Every structure is written in structure tokens, then in C-alpha cells.
């Protein structure tokens, strides 16, 4: 009945980006959650794409309220996954999806607070909804994601199990009172999406993320003896997905404690549960290697990665534990000693690595104990360099669109940016490279437009020609 859990990292250490949900384990989690007080979900935006009922529902496991996507997207078609995968779905979001057979770019718009930091997650469960066996037919099945007007990541479902749920996350600063996510058709299969989740973060978190730098999830692991394949809300107030590190056989050794682990700062707000477990290695060994290199379906060569290591020594006895932290051959953090029962995160703010995500924790000669680790996050750089259309022009052209009900023209997302996805019929001025592009002409002759022009045209000061 359950969709089996395929932990790609178990059999193949290098590609741990996909999962199928563990139905039975999530049920156990659900019973636990009901007796626990839930942290607040204020500001969470939860959209079940392709869900057609405008009444919201409460997710059986997380108790988070999900809504349909009718108010956040134009166009697209709603579908259900094929019958054979229905029974195995771990939640309602996996059962429906929205596909976008038309148009090169289709965007979702989610309300946000300008300048606020968010985690945004998009989830994809193909479930052979179209009956075409697209993930397994041998041809490439690939589409793109934009965050606003910037390229975020590709979703590569080529040769994946149709029951797999793939997710992508980005940590970003809202550029306005809305965040948009666009699906880009590369001509290699119809883009689709199953769910969208927006989670507000504290502004102090991930300090290297700002209006010009976002980061995309590459890997996020927690270590130790953990039951759930994924730890998320309500253990994590921000609903980050922490995958269980799959490799715990000898010489790896699990540590855990019931003692409280203190936190002194709020840079990452990692749940204290995560610090109560750790992974170390048999004392006969002097170093541990953690390989989270690019997966089969991830194009890692062009990525610039930023690792964040989370440590707390939870050994009962006060013995010295010192180690060097390497990325491949490069020494990132020399002679590090984790604090006892206190969280300590190591990262280099804003410094992205060009090498593979291969880390080596190596005991120093003076140390009595081997290295240990509690959690690891790795992100890739997403540059937010492209400028959005001048805000007045954007506002007015959107009024025009509404006035003439021009939804069928696939006027979707930002009018002028990025350039290759600008709205059909618009001419934009990109000549001033450090200024927002402006709309120069609007040619509506291809639309079946009748009647006069809207007043709002007149206010587009840069408009030369109608
Ligand atoms: C929508 O959901 C509500 C509440 O769950 C239910 O009462 C209603 O019958 C549903 N409507 C349709 C058309 O399925
Ligand atoms: C959630 O619970 C409802 C009501 O008990 C049930 O009908 C539905 O199948 C459940 N969904 C999943 C995915 O378990
Ligand atoms: C999908 O394609 C794979 C590989 O060609 C094949 O083994 C499988 O039986 C197909 N499944 C369906 C449902 O057609
Ligand atoms: C910015 O826009 C240009 C031109 O449209 C595009 O080629 C480029 O990929 C975009 N950059 C990002 C970071 O998305
Ligand atoms: C992991 O923890 C469970 C109980 O939580 C225990 O039964 C099991 O033996 C532990 N496994 C290891 C390898 O420590
Ligand atoms: C670890 O070292 C001890 C003492 O040197 C030795 O007795 C034991 O066999 C070693 N264990 C392994 C697995 O190598
Ligand atoms: C997509 O994944 C397939 C199968 O793993 C791989 O062969 C292909 O190179 C990937 N494409 C891109 C653009 O990453
Ligand atoms: C642990 O040991 C170190 C070095 O031996 C010492 O400086 C420190 O005070 C000890 N901490 C505790 C809590 O005993
Ligand atoms: C954003 O952060 C990066 C480093 O992460 C820094 O180089 C850049 O100057 C910052 N930009 C702004 C606008 O603060
Ligand atoms: C890890 O670092 C240690 C010490 O520098 C070295 O001996 C070992 O070969 C390294 N391991 C790998 C797999 O590179
Ligand atoms: C407007 O677009 C139509 C169709 O693409 C074209 O024939 C016409 O010349 C355009 N008008 C202007 C003023 O560019
Ligand atoms: C458009 O411009 C006219 C004349 O300058 C002005 O009266 C009107 O308020 C403007 N409309 C908007 C929506 O800004």
C-alpha cells in the first residue's frame, strides 16, 4: 500500500535529492504531533497545486492548512496522479498537480512582506499523471525554475521513479509584496508542480542572503540514530527538511543525549533535537569523510557551494576533541573544537566553494577523541542580478491586462525581465544596464482587442508608441 521509501543516498551516496515518503512512519509522527503543542504557523503559505476545491484542508500529518492554487496562478491544467500511485501517496499534496503545456514561462505569485527573508519550497510528484510514463521512457524530462526574474534551478526528472517526490528550496529576500516562482519550459517535457510552501525566517538567519544573493538547497542532513527519514515541522519551526544521514554502520558511531544543548545565537535556529544526536567514528580512525557530491540528476559542475556545519559535543566526559575541517584539499576551519552541550555553527559568510561537496573532518594530534558532527547544510549560490521592470510600468501594464482581460496572451510574470521571457507584444528598453527596464511600446494588434485604451496607458511615462 505504501510508496516505498527510496533513499537515493543509501545506495548511492552521491545523489540524495529525492525521496518518497514513508507512510507508516509519518503515521507514527502524526500521533505524536497531536499531543504536542504546535509552534505557530503564522506566515506559512501552503499551496496544493492542482487541488480544485476552494475550501482549505488540514494536512493529516503536519496539521498545516493547505489551500488550492486558484488564486496564485493563471493558466495551466489541474491533474491527479495516476490511480496506481494514489494509495501510496503520503499526503494530499502528492495526489494533485498543475501542468503547464502552454507558454514558455508560467508563474505563481505568493503574497509576501517586502524585505523579509523566506524559505520557499517547490515539490514535484509526477505519479504518471498523464499516462505517458515520461520519467521512464528514456527521453529527457527537464524543466526550469525561476525565482522572480532570476534563474533558480533545473528540475531533472529523467529516469526517476514516477512515485518519487523531488523538492527544491530557495532562501531569498522578498523583492516586493509578492514572491514569484516561474516554471520554464525547456522543450523537454511539460513543466508541472505539486505543491508550493513559503516559510518566513528571522531576518538574522542565513546572514549572507540578501537582495542580491539567494541560496538554493543542495543537501541538508542530520546525523545520529534517527527514525524519521525527514525531520521537519513541528520539530523545526521553519519547516526545513532535514534528511537522515543514511550511513551509520561501523566504523560510524551514533551518539545521543537527553541533556539540553544551549544556543547562544540565532543565526540558524537549528532545533535543539538535532543537536542531541551526533555521529562520530571509532577511535581507531582519525578522520571522517562526508561526501554529498552532485547527484546523477543534478548539474553540479556549474554550482558554487556554501557548507554550514553544525556541532555540539554531547560526550558525557570532558575530553578534548579537536579536528580540522577540509573541503577536498582545502583547509576550511583549522583546529576546531566543538563546545560541550552548546551549539556552534561553522560557515564562511558569503564565500562559495568551487570544489565538490566532499568534506573531511580530521583529528588533530593533540585530540583525545575523533571528530563528530550533528548536522550539515549545503547550499548553492543563486544570483539575483536581473532587474525587474520599472515598478510604475509594471503596475500600469498589469492594469491594462486586467482591464482587457488579456490572460490568454500568456502575459505572465515580469513584463520585460528576463529579456527572453518578456511579454509578447511589448518592446522594452534595457539600454541603461543599472536601471530597471522600461516598457517602450505595446502592440496589442494580435489580441482581439476592441474599444479604447485604458487610461493607465497614459501614465506610462516611457511609452513612446501605442
Ligand atoms: C470541498 O470541500 C468541502 C470541505 O471539505 C466539502 O464539503 C465539499 O463537498 C467539497 N466540494 C467539492 C466540489 O468537492
Ligand atoms: C487524510 O485523512 C482523511 C480523513 O481521515 C482521509 O480521507 C485521507 O485519505 C487522508 N489522506 C492521506 C493522504 O492519508
Ligand atoms: C515505463 O517505461 C519503463 C521503461 O521503458 C517500463 O519498464 C515500464 O514498464 C513503463 N511503465 C508503464 C506503466 O508503462
Ligand atoms: C538574467 O537575464 C539574462 C538575459 O535575459 C539571462 O540570460 C540570465 O540568465 C539572467 N540571469 C539570471 C541570474 O537569471
Ligand atoms: C536506534 O534507536 C533505536 C530506538 O530509538 C534502537 O532500537 C536502535 O537499536 C538504535 N540503533 C542504533 C544503531 O543505535
Ligand atoms: C581498534 O583498536 C584496538 C586497540 O588498538 C584493537 O584492539 C581493535 O581490534 C581495533 N578495532 C578495529 C575494528 O580495528
Ligand atoms: C538529467 O538527468 C539525466 C539522468 O540522470 C542525465 O543523463 C542528464 O545529463 C541530466 N540532464 C541535465 C541537464 O542535468
Ligand atoms: C573541560 O576540560 C577543559 C580542558 O581540560 C577545561 O578547560 C574545561 O574547564 C573543562 N570543562 C568542564 C565543564 O569541566
Ligand atoms: C549580499 O551578500 C554578498 C555576500 O553574501 C555581498 O557580497 C553583497 O555585497 C551583498 N549585497 C548587498 C546588496 O548587500
Ligand atoms: C582526510 O584527511 C586526512 C588528514 O589530512 C588524510 O590523511 C586523508 O587521506 C583524508 N581523506 C580523504 C578521503 O581525502
Ligand atoms: C504589431 O504586431 C503585428 C503582428 O505581429 C504586426 O503586424 C504589426 O506590424 C505590429 N505593429 C507595430 C506598430 O509594430
Ligand atoms: C494618471 O495620470 C493622470 C494625469 O497625470 C492623473 O490625473 C492620474 O491620477 C494618474 N493615474 C494614476 C493611476 O496614477
From TrEMBL:
Protein name (database record): Malectin-like domain-containing protein
Organism: Triticum turgidum subsp. durum (Durum wheat)
Stretches assigned to the Malectin-like domain: 47-380
Coarse class of the protein's main subcellular location: membrane
Pfam families listed in its UniProt record: Malectin_like (PF12819)
Residues spanning the membrane: none
Gene Ontology CC: membrane
UniProt entry keywords in alphabetical sequence: Signal
Signal peptide: 1-37
InterPro entries: Malectin-like_Carb-bd_dom
Amino acid at each position: 500500500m505504501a510508496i516505498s521509501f527510496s533513499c537515493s543516498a543509501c545506495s548511492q551516496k552521491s545523489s540524495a535529492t529525492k525521496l518518497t515518503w514513508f507512510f507508516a512512519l509519518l503515521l507514527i509522527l502524526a500521533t505524536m504531533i497531536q499531543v504536542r503543542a504546535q509552534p505557530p504557523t503564522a506566515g506559512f503559505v501552503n499551496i496544493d497545486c492542482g487541488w480544485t476545491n476552494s475550501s482549505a484542508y488540514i494536512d493529516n500529518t503536519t496539521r498545516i492548512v493547505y489551500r488550492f492554487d486558484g488564486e496564485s496562478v493563471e493558466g495551466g491544467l489541474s491533474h491527479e496522479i495516476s490511480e496506481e500511485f494514489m494509495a501510496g501517496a503520503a499526503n494530499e499534496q502528492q495526489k494533485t498537480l498543475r501542468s503547464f503545456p502552454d507558454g514558455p514561462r508560467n508563474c505563481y505569485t505568493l503574497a509576501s512582506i517586502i524585505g523579509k527573508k523566506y524559505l520557499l519550497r517547490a515539490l514535484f510528484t509526477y505519479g504518471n499523471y498523464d499516462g505517458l510514463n515520461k520519467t521512464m521512457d528514456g527521453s529527457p524530462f527537464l524543466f526550469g525554475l525561476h525565482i522572480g526574474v532570476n534563474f533558480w534551478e533545473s528540475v531533472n526528472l529523467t529516469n526517476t521513479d514516477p512515485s518519487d517526490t523531488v523538492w527544491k528550496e530557495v532562501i531569498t529576500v522578498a523583492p516586493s509584496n509578492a514572491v514569484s516562482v516561474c516554471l520554464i519550459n525547456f522543450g523537454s517535457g511539460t513543466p508541472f508542480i505539486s505543491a508550493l510552501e513559503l516559510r518566513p525566517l528571522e531576518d538574522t538567519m542565513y546572514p549572507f542572503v540578501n537582495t542580491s544573493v539567494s541560496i538554493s538547497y543542495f543537501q541538508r542532513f542530520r546525523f545520529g540514530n534517527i527514525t524519521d527519514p525527514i525531520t521537519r515541522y513541528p520539530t523545526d519551526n521553519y519547516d526545513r527538511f532535514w534528511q537522515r544521514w543514511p550511513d551509520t554502520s561501523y566504523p560510524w558511531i551514533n551518539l545521543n543525549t537527553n541533556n539540553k544543548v544551549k544556543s547562544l545565537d540565532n543565526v540558524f535556529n537549528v532545533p535543539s533535537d538535532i543537536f542531541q544526536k551526533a555521529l562520530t567514528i571509532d577511535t581507531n580512525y582519525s578522520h571522517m569523510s562526508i561526501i554529498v557530491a552532485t547527484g546523477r540528476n543534478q548539474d553540479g559542475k556549474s554550482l558554487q557551494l556554501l557548507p554550514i556545519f553544525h556541532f555540539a559535543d554531547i560526550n558525557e566526559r570532558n575530553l578534548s576533541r579537536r579536528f580540522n575541517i577540509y573541503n577536498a584539499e582545502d583547509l576550511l576551519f583549522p583546529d576546531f573544537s566543538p563546545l560541550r552541550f552548546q551549539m556552534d555553527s561553522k560557515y564562511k559568510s558569503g564565500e562559495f566553494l568551487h570544489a565538490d561537496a566532499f568534506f573531511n573532518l580530521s583529528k588533530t594530534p593533540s585530540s583525545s577523541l575523533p571528530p563528530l558532527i550533528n548536522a550539515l547544510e549545503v547550499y548553492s549560490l543563486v544570483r539575483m542580478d536581473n532587474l525587474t521592470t520599472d515598478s510604475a510600468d509594471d503596475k500600469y501594464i498589469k492594469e491594462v491586462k486586467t482591464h482587457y482581460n488579456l490572460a490568454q496572451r500568456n502575459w505572465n510574470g515580469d513584463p520585460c525581465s528576463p529579456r527572453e521571457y518578456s511579454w509578447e507584444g511589448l518592446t522594452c528598453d534595457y539600454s541603461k544596464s543599472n536601471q530597471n527596464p522600461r516598457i517602450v511600446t505595446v502592440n496589442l494588434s494580435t489580441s482581439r482587442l476592441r474599444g479604447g485604451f485604458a487610461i493607465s496607458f497614459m501614465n506610462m511615462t516611457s511609452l513612446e508608441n501605442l
